[in-house]
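re: ur question from yesterday

yeah so i grabbed the chain u mentioned. its 272 aa long if i counted rite. heres the sequnce exactly as i have it in my notes:
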Amino acid sequence: MSSAAVSPPVADVTTRDDGRVRVVTMYRPSSRNGLTLDMTTEIADAIDAAAKDDAVRALVLWGEGGAFCSGLDLKAAVAVGAGQSAPEQIRERMKRHFHRMIRSVRACEKPVIALVDGPAAGFGCDLALACDLRVVSQRARFGEIFVKRGLIPDGGGSFTLPRLIGLGRALELMMTGDIIDSAEAHRLGIANKVVPDADILAAGLAFAHKIAAGPPLVLRLVKQLCYGAQDASFDQALDAEVEGQIKCLNSADFIEGMTAFFAKRPPEFSGK
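ran it thru and got these structure tokens back, copy pasting raw so excuse formatting
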């Protein structure tokens, strides 16, 4: 595993591999990693490419420079059509750029972990919420600040946040636009881990590698089952678990897991 010290990227969005973990980095210090139209496409392309790469077992999405993502860049907001009465244009650009990015994160069958250092505000908050897990620094801040701009959450926050923290608290955060710190995010269940600011990348990568060491089929099925169960009945969830377990029992990784258990050694999963 590489160390946490890395040189700042020269592009707005870059990717690199840390063993089995694909790291997708946002870096626009002038706007605290505010999203442009091009960035949304680059992030979606990076996620889609990692999803198709068998060598990648997990993904990390993070913002370099002390900010995860401050939301939509103001210039990008103008490009989308803010302040204009062109609903079809706004709809098309939102779906083609911002919603494609969010959908790519959500649809990726591999674990996607957000490393939140500093602010995750507005669409940046929704982007972090769309990821499967969140490791955050002590200086991390989350805010569904849309209401303060006369807007509503438009990155899936109305779907993800209530499912993470409950309807009442989600409504409170979306209706007030209040910003919560890392301790409150952890208490509510938004953050899985809180780590010192200087350790965010190293700790996040260690967490990602721990997950990536698991059997890929099981990780994919766990993600499918958990998300699918949110909109299913209890009986439907049980049926889906049966079908998923059949796939696991017929996999080479199940045999490896059992063999390693009896041999008292760590398993080496192949993804087959």
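noticed a couple things. The two ends are 24 Å apart (CA to CA). also Confidence is low (pLDDT under 50) at residues 1-5.
anyway ttyl
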